[in-house]
Design goal:
The complex is a heterodimer.
Chain A lengths: L2 E3 L4 E5 L4 E3 L2 E3 L6 E7 L6 E7 L6 E3 L2 E6 L4 E6 L8 E10 L5 E5 L3 E6 L1
Chain B lengths: L4 E3 L2 E4 L5 E6 L6 E7 L6 E7 L2 E4 L8 E4 L6 E5 L8 E8 L7 E2 L3 E5 L1
Parallel strand pairs in B: 2-11
Antiparallel strand pairs in B: 1-3, 3-8, 4-5, 4-9, 5-6, 7-8, 9-10, 9-11
The chains are: A mainly beta, B mainly beta.
Chain lengths: 117, 113
């Protein structure tokens, strides 16, 4: 099965705390892509990162960092020094190739992050 | 340039009515996707277009759902004889091509009463 599991349904932190959102995936593909999206209360999904399965280097972008570990099939997302504006639902997703050359994103159920002042 | 736009943003339909949801992808994007997002859940794939060709419609929940992209740009998702279980947010996404990142529109929230 090709699936994404985000075990944390909701997380609540106080501003300036660091927080890690977990993502575990299952796939039978040898080449695949992993994504993180942010969905603020306005509802629009905002692209954060895409990672190729061959690139296991960790990535940092400002206060955001991602830890990809193929050995444990995990692609975790850390926000350093969280801010109230980080409050949103965060989705991890896996790109799945289908027959006919099409593709789709398989999403986890999301983790709702609340950052309190 | 402009992002993905969708209209209407909100739609209330009585059970049994037909609805049409529109998506304008980012100009030049070859791939277009429709997803359905139920309350408190992640988006679920419905269908995929590469230009005007519908290459995958395996996620459409029933034959009441129909999607088209006749000229390879704007797409319409049509739901016939709406049911209460069709209530959800319908998201459209586009990507340049292949396995590039998908950019999502704001969604259409459909409520069937």
């Amino acid at each position: 099965a090709q699936k994404v599991t985000q075990a944390q349904t909701e997380i609540s932190v106080v501003e300036k705390e660091d927080v890690t959102l977990d993502c575990v995936y299952e796939t039978r593909d040898t080449t695949y892509y992993l994504f993180w999206y942010k969905q603020p209360p306005s509802g629009e999904l905002v692209f954060l990162i895409r990672r190729n399965s061959f690139d296991e280097q960790n990535e940092i972008s400002g206060r955001y960092s991602w830890n990809f570990q193929k050995s444990t099939s995990s692609f975790n997302f850390t926000i350093t020094a969280s801010q109230v504006v980080d409050s949103a639902v965060y989705f991890c997703a896996l790109s799945v190739l289908t027959q006919g050359g099409s593709e789709k994103l398989v999403f986890g159920k999301g983790t709702k992050l609340t950052v309190n002042p | 340039g402009a992002g993905v736009s969708q209209s209407p943003r909100y739609k209330v339909a009585k059970r049994g009515q037909d609805v049409a949801l529109r998506c304008d992808p980012i100009s030049g994007h070859v791939s277009l996707f429709w997803y359905q997002q139920a309350l408190g859940q992640g988006p679920e794939f419905l269908t995929y277009f590469q230009n005007e060709a519908q290459l995958d419609k395996s996620g459409l929940p029933s034959d009441r759902f129909f999607a088209e992209r006749p000229e390879g740009s704007v797409s319409t998702l049509k739901i016939q004889r709406t049911q209460q279980e069709d209530s959800a947010v319908y998201l459209c996404a586009s990507s340049l091509e292949g396995r590039d990142e998908q950019y999502f529109g704001p969604g259409t929230r459909l409520t069937v009463t």
